[in-house]
C-alpha cells in the first residue's frame, strides 16, 4: 500500500512523545490565554474571543498522555446519577476527557451531556465579567462595584420592606458546601424564602416519602437496580433524563430477565426497552396505582407479614383502593384492567421489585399524594428495605439531593432540621451565633388580610415563599401575601428563568422587581426575557468543575470533586461571592466563624467539616473531606452491585461508595454509610436499620413503632422510639457515654438535658452508643400508609386543574382554595372556571412536558454548548400523527401551540410522532430565548446568547400547585395546536 | 456466475432507476419471534423489536429519525453501495477498456483496409466554399476542447489510479487528480453551453430525411465507389450530431444530479446517475473517437471545415452535393471564393 | 485558428466563471446544518481547516478564517 | 492481528448521543461534521430501536474501492483510513458508503466540497502518530495509545462495542444468550459480510 500502515506492534505501545509546542515547555496556561486572546485586556472585546486555545493545546499534546498531563477527577454537573468526570489537564488547560472506568456509578460511561462537559469550562458563550443594565444597555463592571452596588441596594430594600422582601434562589448545581453556605447566608440575612430547583422537581417526593418512612430520598441506589426482578418506571424517562442509570436498569433487566414495566403517557425512549408499556392519561397516577393495588388486595398478593410488622394503617388504604375497580380505573386513566392485573401480579410476586419514578409523578397538583401512593404500593408488597427493592427516585440535577439535604428549602434548615426553635438553636450552636441575634434578623409581620400579626420568632418559624410562586409574591396585592411586604428583590444563583409555569406572569414579575441579580455561568432567561432597564446585575459564577466541593448523588452517595481548572474568564466560585456579599452586608464574620477563608475564598473542606459537626439528623456527620477524597482515590475498589469496598482495605475498608447518608457518628467511627435505607437484614454499623420513628409512638391506640421487626444484631428486639438522653437514662445507656460526650450533652440540654437527642447531640455520643447497641439512632418505627398531617392523609385522585375530562371533575375535584406557604392557592376556583367555560373544548389537547437527553434544566448552559446544541436546534412539540393529520400539520413545520391562560402562544416546530397518544402533545422544557414568536437573542449581553434559543414550554403552562410543597403542574395542562 | 448476476442486477438498477430488492443481501434472522418479519406492533416493546430483516422487507434501505438537520443522515444502512462498488470496480474498467480500445482497434482496422479517403479532383478543385462560419467553429471547438478534457479527466476517475498512479506516485497523482476533478466539474459548464449552441445552430440541417436513408444504403460512400447524395450534413454526421445532443444532454443531466447531491435524488439515485454517466461517457468517447478519425486522419479535406471553415468546392460537391447546390442557388454565384489556388494543407 | 483560440479562451473563462458560481452557491457544513434556532459563532476548524476546505495547513491561510461564522454577534439593543 | 469492528447493541442503545458528543469532544469535530450519529428506527412505536452509526470500517470497503485516487488504506487493525492529502473531494466514497459515513466541509454542490472527513476509529491518519498535523487533519490517535474509540468507551449503556471483531461478537453473543433476545448486529452483513451467529 502506498501509505504508512499502522503497525500492530506500535499501536500497542504508549507513546510519550509529545510534539513540539508542549515539549518546548513554552505553553503554560498564561500563554494559552494570551495566544487565544483570553487575557483580561482582550476580554473587553469578549464577543469576538477566539477559543482556539483548547484545541491548540490538544493539538500540541495530542491525545497522548505526556509528562505534563495532570489527571483531575470531578463529578458531572448535569444529572443526579453522579458520574465521575476524568479530565486531562495540561498546563492549566483542560485538553481531554477520559472514561472513568474506576467509578462504580458510571463505569467509564457518559451521556451526551457528560461526554461534552469539557466544553462548559471554555464555552465562549459564558458570562465573562460582571455586568449591569444601565438604561437598557449592558455595561461591564468590576466585581467590587458589583458587590458595593448590590449590597447597598439590598440594604436599602431591607430597611424599607424587610428581610423577606428579598427572595434568595439557590441552585441544585451548587456543591454541598455552597448550598449549605447559602442556606446559612439566608438564615443570617433573616428569611426563610430561600429555595432551589428541588421545589420544581422532587419537592413532593421529599415531602411524600419523608412523611411515609422518614427520609425523603431514594431508598436504594442505581446500582442496586441490578438486583431487581421487576421494575416499574412510572412517570420517568431515565433513557433521556438519567442515561447512565439505564446501564444498571438494562443490566438488571438482562441479568435477571427482569420485568421492566414503563407506565407513562408517552412512549419514551425508556419505554422502547420495556417488557411492558402501559399508556396512561396524564395526571391519573393515583387511579393507576390504586388500580394495581386493587388487584393485589383482591388476590391477596400483598406482603401481610411486612405490613403487620412495619406499616401503620394499611387498612385505611384498602378502603380507598376498593373504590378503584378495574372499570373505574379504565374509565379515568384509560388503562385496561387486564394489563394492570398483569403488572400487579408481577410487582407483587416476582420480587424483589422496585419502583422508579421521576418528575412525571411529582410535578402535579397531587404530586405529594402521587408519591405517597407509590410508597404505599412498595409497602403493600414488602418491596422496601432489601436489595433490588425500594423507591428508586431519580432526582434531577447533579446535586439536587445535596442542596435539598442542606436546606435550600423554604420549609427547613440544613439537614431537615425543622423551622422550630429547637432546630434554630441547634444550628445557632453549630454556627456559634446567638439564637437571639438570628431572631432579630427576621421581620415582624403586621396583621393583614384578616390574618394575625406574626412576631419575629413566629416569622422565623414560618416557611417561606416557594420558588414556584416568587412572581406571584411580586405581582399579587400585598394583603394576599403573608409577610411584611411583597418581594422586591430577587437574588438568583444558578437557576434558569424559564423553569416556572405561567411565564407571561413571571415576566410581569421580573419587570416589577426593584433589584434582580443573576449569579450564574450564563446570563439565563432572566437576563433576556424581560424589559428591564436598570437595577439588573449579572455575576459570572464558575461551574462546579472549576471549584472544589462535594456533591450528593441521587443514591445519597457523596462524591468529592476537585477543581479541574481555574475559573474561566473573571468568574468566581459561589463560596467567594457569598462571602464577599456577606462581607458587604456585615455578617461575613458570622458566616465563616469556623470556616477558614483563604484569599477571600472560604475553604470547601472546612465548610464540609462544619456540616459534619451539625449534620446528625441525616447522618451527614461521618463524611469528612478526608474520607470522601479517599473514596475518589479508591473508586476501583468498590463493588459494582453492593457499592461496598472490601473490608480489609486500609483506606476505605467496608465503606459503601460515597458514604451514602446516613453515615452515623463522627468520621473516626468509620460508619460505612447506608447504601440501602431501612434494611433490617444488616447491622446498623453495616448500614442497616428500620423505618424512622419520626411521627411519635402511638396514634389512635395503634402503635407507630415496628412490631417484631428490628435490624440485625439489635439489642432491642422490637420497635423503639428515637433516642434522647432521656431514653438513654431509662435504658441505662447513659453510662456508655464518655465524660466529654456527657459534658457536651449536659451543656446543650441546659435545664432539660433529657430532650437532647441523637440529632442535637453535638458530641455524637448518643449516635456512637446507639451503634454499639446495634440500634438506629432515629428509632425503629412503622411506615405510614396514613399520613394524618397531610391534606389527603390517604391519597385520593383529583383531576388536574385543567382537566381534559370535565365530566370527572365533579367526582374528583382538586382541593378547595387554601392558603399555603404564605400564598393563596386558588386551584379550585380556577378548575371550576375551566369547566364552566368549556376550556377543554377550545384546548382539546393535553400538554405535557419533559426532558431531552442533550439538555439539562432550563437549558442555558447546555444550549450554549455547541456539541450538544447541534443535536437539538429547534424547540418542538410532539404531536400525534392523528392530531397532525386533522390539523394539516406536517413533520418539521412551524406550528403555534397556544395555552388557555394569558392568551399565551408559542411558535415551535412540529414533530409528528406516535410517541404521544391521540390528543396528547409533548414539549421539552429546556428552551427559552424566544417569546411568543419573537426571537429575543439581541437582549442577551453581546456574545453570551446561547447557541440555540427557542420558545419556553412554560409560556403556555398553567395554574396549579401542590398543597404541601407548592409544586407546580407542568405535566398536565391543555393546549391547542395550529399550523403557523 | 455470481458476477454475472450482480452485473445484471446492477444494470437493472441503472435502467429501472430503483434498487432491486432481490439483489440485496438478506439480513440475518436474529430474533426468533421476529423471524417471520411480522409487523411489530403491540405493547411489548422488547419482544417486538424491529430488526434488519424486517426492515429490509419493507424497503430497500433502513431509514429512521435523527435530530440533526441533515436529512440524509437518517438513512442507517443503504446496502446498494455494495452493488455500486461492484459495478464501478469490477465492471466499469472492463467496459471502458473494451469499448474504447475496441473503437480504436476498429478504426485501426478500417484505416488499414480503407486507408485515407482522398480528395477527388475536378475543375472545381482549388475553389473554396464557406462551410462553417466563425461562430460555428468557435462553438465546435469550445465543445471539443471541453470534451477532450472532460474525457481525460473522466477516464482518470476510472483508470487514473490503475495506470497513472503507479507511474507518478500518489502525491503527484493526488494533485493531478485534484485538478482533473476541478476541470471536470468546471469545464462541464462551457461544454453544456457548447452542446446547447450546436443544437440550436445545426438542428435545422440535421432533421433526418429520405436522402439519409439512401446515403446509408449506399454505405455513405465509405465502401465502394461514388458518393451518395447528401445535404449540409450526411446521415453519418447527423448521427454524430444526435449523439452529441443526446449523450450531451444525458451526461449533463446525470452530471448535474451528481454535482448537486440530494437536490433531486437520493443516494441510490446518485449511484444510478453515476452508472449512467460513466457508461454513456465511455460510449460517447468511443463515438467521438470515430468522429475525430473521420474528421482528420480518415478523410482528406474534411478537417478544413472546422479548421479554416472553408472547404474545397470539389470535396464539397462530392460529399455534400445537395448543400452546394442549395448554397449556390441561394447566393446566385455561390459562396465559392476566388484566389486560393492551392488546397488547404 | 482564431476561432479555436477564442474557443479555448471562452472555455477557460466559462470554467472559471462556473468555479466562482459553484463555490459561492456552496454552504459550509456549519451553515447548512444549522437552523433558525441556532447562532453558530465558532463552528471550529479542526479536521476541516481554517478555510473549511479540509486543508488544515494554516500557512496557506490568510485573511478571515471561516471558522468564525459570518454575521454580526448579537448587539445589545434592548427596548 | 486484531480486526477492529463496531457493534451497536440496539437493545441497549437509548439514543443518548454520548457517542456523538464524545466524538466531538475527542477530536474537536466542528459543527456540521457528524462522524457519528444515532438513528432511531420505528420511532414512537413498539419495537422502536436506536442504532449508533459511523464508519463501520468495512471489509473490502466500498469507499476505498471506488476512490478514484486510492486515498484509502486499511491498517493492520483493519481500520479504514484515508489521506486527506490525496483526497480530491469527488464524493464517490459518499455514493458508495452503505452507512452515510463520509462528511464534507462544504455542502451544496461538488464543485469543491473539500476533503472528505470520516470516523477514523480514533486512530488518526497517515501522519506520524500524535503529531499536530495528524490531529488537525484526522483528530486524536487513541488506538496508538492502546485505547479504544471514545464513543464506545463512553457509551452510556455499553451498547456500542468497539474492539476486535471476534471479541465484541462474543460479548454480544453472551448478552443475547443471557437475556434471550437480540435484534442483531446492525450493519454487519453489509459491512463485514458476516453476522454474529447465535
Automatic annotation (TrEMBL), chain A:
Keywords: 4Fe-4S, Iron, Iron-sulfur, Metal-binding, Molybdenum, Oxidoreductase, Signal. Its main location: other. Its cofactor is Mo-bis(molybdopterin guanine dinucleotide); [4Fe-4S] cluster. One of its GO terms (biological process) is anaerobic respiration. GO terms for cellular component: cell envelope. Its EC number is 1.17.1.9. It comes from Methylorubrum thiocyanatum. This is Formate dehydrogenase major subunit. It is found in: Cell envelope. It is an enzyme of class 1 (oxidoreductase). It comes from the Bacteria.
Automatic annotation (TrEMBL), chain B:
SUPFAM superfamilies: Transmembrane di-heme cytochromes (SSF81342). One of its GO terms (biological process) is formate oxidation. GO terms for molecular function: electron transfer activity; formate dehydrogenase (NAD+) activity; formate dehydrogenase (quinone) activity; metal ion binding. The chain crosses the membrane at residues 91-113, 138-159, 186-203, 240-263, 275-294. Residues 1-29 form the signal peptide. Keywords: Cell membrane, Electron transport, Heme, Iron, Membrane, Metal-binding, Signal, Transmembrane, Transmembrane helix, Transport. GO terms for cellular component: formate dehydrogenase complex; plasma membrane. Its main location: membrane. It holds the Pfam family Ni_hydr_CYTB. It is found in: Cell membrane. It is a multi-pass membrane protein. Residues 131-301 form the Cytochrome b561 bacterial/Ni-hydrogenase domain. Its cofactor is heme. Belongs to the formate dehydrogenase gamma subunit family. NCBIfam families: formate-DH-gamm. PANTHER family: FORMATE DEHYDROGENASE GAMMA SUBUNIT (PTHR30074:SF6), FORMATE DEHYDROGENASE, NITRATE-INDUCIBLE, CYTOCHROME B556 FDN SUBUNIT (PTHR30074). This is Formate dehydrogenase subunit gamma. It comes from Methylorubrum thiocyanatum.
TrEMBL record, chain C:
The lineage of its organism: Bacteria, Pseudomonadati, Pseudomonadota, Alphaproteobacteria, Hyphomicrobiales. Residues 1-29 form the signal peptide. This is Uncharacterized protein. Keywords: Signal. Residues 54-69 have a biased composition (Basic and acidic residues). It comes from the Bacteria. Residues 40-79 are annotated as: Disordered.
TrEMBL record, chain D:
The keyword DNA-binding does not apply. Pfam families: Fer4_6. GO terms for molecular function: 4 iron, 4 sulfur cluster binding; formate dehydrogenase (cytochrome) activity; metal ion binding. InterPro entries: 4Fe4S_Fe-S-bd, 4Fe4S_Fe_S_CS, ET_IronSulfur_Cluster-Binding. Gene3D superfamilies: 3.30.70.20. It comes from the Bacteria. The keyword Metal-binding applies. Keywords: 4Fe-4S, Iron, Iron-sulfur, Metal-binding, Oxidoreductase. Residues 4-34, 78-107 form the 4Fe-4S ferredoxin-type domain. Its EC number is 1.2.2.1. This is Formate dehydrogenase iron-sulfur (Beta) subunit. The gene is fdh3B.
